[in-house]
Amino acid sequence: MNTMLLSIHWNPNPELFNLFGISIRYYGLLWAVGIFFAYMVVHYQYRDKKIEEKKFDPLFFYCFFGILIGARLGHCLFYAPGYYLSHFWEMILPIKFMPDGNWKFTGYEGLASHGGTLGLIIALWLYCRKTKLHYMDVLDMIAVATPITACFIRLANLMNSEIIGKPSDVPWAFVFERVKEYGANGEILPAIPRHPGQLYEAIAYLILFFIMIYLYKNYSKKLHRGFFFGFCLTYIFTFRFFIEFLKENQEDFENSMMFNMGQWLSVPFIIIGVYFMFFYDKKKKKIG
Length: 288
Description:
GO cellular component, one term: plasma membrane
Pathway: Protein modification; lipoprotein biosynthesis (diacylglyceryl transfer)
Shape: globular
Structural class: mainly alpha
Organism: Bacteroides caecimuris
Family: Belongs to the Lgt family.
Strand order of the largest sheet: 1-6-9
Order of helices and strands: HEEEHHHHHEEHHEEEEHHH
Pfam families: LGT
């Protein structure tokens, strides 16, 4: 049987609509929706724990810029340091310099989740220094909300037809029509069915979100400080490690590695997560 007939042909226009010459893309919209839902979840936790509103107000800005800066620098330094260290301004600004000396606006073409996680952790440390809240309490609250944002980010990747999976003959394989593949002589090859790795991750993170909400509603006062943070890191990056076996490498240099860059970068986060789940001082009680 022709597996192409069983596959999902995927070719959405990444632009949702154009407003007065400004392109509104699914990618940016889904990012914004994910952050909005996380904002609402964390706000609920602050009210539930009776933390004063003025301490919540600056949290969004710390999280937004921490994730954005960390994710951008993570992509540039982890996946393409040779290029970006010699094109410094393209790492900082959402532009690309053209061979003729001109430049064009491209948006940030490349954001790494590992870098975004590290950037968020650093930003929250700065936030806690300012507000005097306990660092681990804030990390726990953010961890409860993080999976919903991660879910929408992977849906954004799906709408952009990026971070594609390896060839597959499963009935739910996606044929990413916009992804160009070239033969040995430079000819464009027909698109083939692939694992929708972005969708696998989105579903996994949505499940984690519901688990987090259940645990928070029923066991938040019984679980030790740092548990939610540790559980979030362990779940997300363990899943990320194994899902990478079904995804194409993002850069050519990864083809010669035993594990790709995403897998190597996941290992430290898994170790940190396990520590906070099982070995962090359980006598430190949570607030609220």
